[in-house]
Amino acid sequence: MDRQLLSAIAHRDHPIAGPISDDTLDRLVRRAALPDRARILDLGCGEAAWSLRALELVPSAVADGVDVSPHAIAAAQRAADARGLSDRLSLHLTPAADFPATQPYDLVLCVGSTHAFGGLKGTMDAVSRFVRPGGLALVGEGFWERTPDRALAEAIGTYPGLAGTIAAAESDGWLTVYGHVSDLAEWDDYELSWTGTLARWAAANPGPDGEHALAVMREHRDMWLTGYRGVLGFVSLLLQRV
Q1: Which of 233, 221, 110 shows the shortest CA–CA distance to 169?
Q2: Which Pfam families match (predicted)?
């Protein structure tokens, strides 16, 4: 089974695809206070939970969602159809770094997808090319709540603390105007949904694919429970281009 399909299965019951509750997502999008006819770009959109909620809040807005996973794009299209928003959401199956924007956007989203641009600094540089002067970015990124041990840092990657993460986001013409640090309950809900949904699928699909999915689930769950739970944090920053 390919990694993108496994991810799509694991996120079926948690389409936000990150340690963020529905209420938090709603609050962050509302805080953007988007204008009428807003243009929204969702980089690494997954199932497009963020941009779909923004379209519901601003009935005259339009959005572009970009992702490399055909499974995520298909799920986003189904969600848009079900919510009557498919006429205002355009989906693009392409790497986020290759998306050829032709007009600036009022809000650019990149939540949990900064790896597409080589990290947070590269993401902010890319978003600067897409957003209009005075426009907004909503960026979600990991940070270390506590200093990890060496093995965990090598397994997950290099992150600063929260102060360093905000400083990196603001390093080149951006100002943080709001944000949210995911709490342990949001993390646990996300991880239990991710692992539980994948386990349930594996049980319903015995054979090589089910066994592989179960092995991936157990490896992920072990890394969470014995590694980064309470150590790795996640912050969603609403930033304004100044």
Answers
A1: 110
A2: Methyltransf_25
Q: What's the pLDDT score for residue 1?
A: 82
**What's the CA gap between 28 and 238, in Å, rounded?**
8
| Amino acid (one-letter) located at 223 | M
Q: What are phi and psi of 51, to 5 degrees?
A: -70, -30
Give me the domains of the chain, ranges plus CATH numbers: 21-184+232-241 (3.40.50.150)
Token pair in block for residue 68: 């490399």
192: its two tokens: 């239990």
Q: In the prediction, which pLDDT does 174 show?
A: 96
pLDDT in tens, 58-68: 999 999 999 99
pLDDT for the residue 157: 86
HSE-CB at 20 with a 13 A cutoff on CA atoms is 26
51-62 burial, b at 16+ Cβ within 10 Å, e below that, comes to bbbbbeebeebb
Nearest CA among 195, 161, 165 for reference residue 6? 195
Question: Using alpha carbons only, how large is the chain's radius of gyration in Å?
Answer: 18
pLDDT < 50 positions in the chain: none
Helices 120-130 and 162-169: crossing angle, nearest 10°? Answer: 30
DSSP annotation of 87: T
pLDDT at 101: 84
Q: What token pair was written down for 5? A: 């399909």
What pairing do the DSSP bridges indicate for beta strands 62-67 and 105-111? Answer: unpaired
Q: Are 117 and 102 in contact (CB under 8 A)?
A: no
